[in-house]
Automatic annotation (TrEMBL):
Organism superkingdom: Bacteria
SUPFAM superfamilies per UniProt: TPR-like
Source organism per UniProt: Flavobacterium degerlachei
UniProt protein name: Starch-binding associating with outer membrane
Segments of this protein annotated with the region Disordered: 403-423
Transmembrane intervals: none
PROSITE patterns given in the database record: PROKAR_LIPOPROTEIN (PS51257)
Biased composition regions of type Polar residues, renumbered to the chain: 412-423
Length: 423
């Protein structure tokens, strides 16, 4: 893994992989940032900016890469060569792709910078401030690692020259341990405070992410345990304003120059496509648009993007009940029906299918197919579909890659970089 120090008090331009440190003499030193209360708070706020703003950010690269790989999006302008490679997939997606390289480098930088905050947390002396900054940094570390392992077969956990690569199970175990380490603070001492970005509700977010990553790891009982702790009426979001724009809206949807939704079928095969009366179609796609344009969370430069959706948590429970041993299919159907019959009044973001309850066969395979279908619709353009497609064993024709090739910047600097996946 490359070693990069960058002042995240003023997060801006990012960068090419290397093994050297680049210090900006006009910015605070690393020591100054990490040894003062104000420095740590600024660094924690910088994590959120790095994650969620600009075309370089994981917010843009994850939604975009996943969307093209899983047929959610259509390319508008072929001049966007990196997005074009992703839209074709297969061998056309090269190790030189700028978008996937940004996904790799940005997540590793965010992981590294988060760890520095965690390692220096005892600089904070007020318990609520300490707990909040620790939890904030832990959330971003977990998201960075958990995101990378959805797109790459293995990744390095250590920040060092010639870092070894770790397996998927090892990475997910580290993600979960990072989130679990926040639990002592969550009850009373991780409530946020003036000066720290406040749109992420820590307790809810930690439990939502734990349920997500336990599901990916295959620990269905733990996924259920943490999903049941999430308050579905509370929002956790990345917020935007006139200066820090929603990167999907700003770079693509409002310019109509990079990508838009592929169709009102969300790119799903006919057997899984939403029925025309599904209310989620008009939530995510502008009603009457032809060709389709995005609505939902992506049609305004200042629209907040959720960290997680209530529907994801409900569908995690449905899937966990269906997969656990022994499985609990009746309970799985109850959770699935909550999503199918949900009205706008019963969803904090107004996402609602407004459909009848599930009436198909009550067997594991049929329920899992319907759960997958609803994840693709309910969680459209959230960056989770590639992971879902593999986990549910969907046909390879429903995605154009299984895993991404490792960036040249990593391979040229780290001899431990694995062989690129075939597809």
């Amino acid at each position: 893994m490359k070693k990069i120090f960058i002042s995240i008090l003023v997060a801006s331009f990012l960068f090419t992989s290397c093994n050297e440190e680049f210090l900006d003499p006009t910015k605070p030193s690393e020591e100054g940032v990490l040894t003062s209360r104000d420095g740590l708070i600024g660094a924690a706020n910088g994590l959120q900016q790095l994650w969620s703003t600009s075309r370089l950010s994981p917010m843009y690269t994850v939604i975009t890469a996943n969307g093209f790989t899983t047929n959610e999006l259509r390319l508008i302008n072929a001049g966007n060569a990196d997005e074009g490679e992703l839209s074709i997939g297969g061998v056309s997606l090269t190790s030189k792709n700028g978008l996937t390289n940004n996904l790799w480098s940005q997540c590793l930088v965010i992981k590294s910078e988060s760890q520095k905050i965690i390692d220096n947390i005892n600089v904070m002396t007020v318990e609520n401030e300490k707990g909040s900054v620790f939890t904030h940094a832990s959330i971003f570390k977990a998201m960075a690692l958990g995101t990378l392992i959805q797109f790459y077969e293995s990744i390095p956990l250590k920040t060092m020259k010639n870092a070894p690569f770790n397996s998927r199970a090892e990475v997910l175990t580290e993600v979960i341990a990072t989130l679990k380490a926040t639990e002592p603070y969550l009850a009373t001492n991780a409530n946020g405070f003036t000066g720290l970005a406040s749109s992420i509700k820590y307790k809810n977010t930690v439990n939502a992410l734990l349920s997500r990553f336990y599901l990916m790891l295959g620990d269905y009982n733990k996924a259920l345990e943490h999903a049941n702790l999430v308050d579905l009426a509370s929002k956790s979001t990345f917020y935007y304003d006139a200066v820090s724009n929603n990167p999907i809206a700003f770079n693509s949807i409002l310019t109509n120059n990079v990508f838009q939704p592929i169709s009102r079928t969300f790119g799903l095969p006919s057997a899984l496509a939403p029925v025309p009366t599904d209310g989620r179609i008009d939530f995510y796609i502008t009603s009457g648009s032809n060709p389709t344009t995005a609505a939902g969370f992506y049609n305004s430069n200042t629209k907040a993007i959720p960290v997680f959706l209530p529907g994801e948590i409900i569908l995690i429970k449905a899937e966990a009940y269906a997969r656990k041993t022994p499985n609990m299919l009746a309970e799985s159907k109850i959770e699935l029906d909550k999503v199918l019959t949900k009205t706008t009044a019963n969803d904090v973001y107004g996402i609602a299918a407004n459909l009848p309850a599930y009436s198909g066969s009550l067997d594991q395979a049929s329920l899992l197919t319907e759960i997958y279908r609803n994840r693709c619709i309910e969680l459209y353009m959230t960056g989770l579909k590639l992971e879902d497609s593999r986990r549910f064993g969907r046909s390879a024709t429903e995605r154009n890659r299984n895993w991404y090739p490792y960036p040249d910047s990593e391979r040229f600097n780290n001899p431990n970089t694995p062989t690129d996946p075939v597809n």
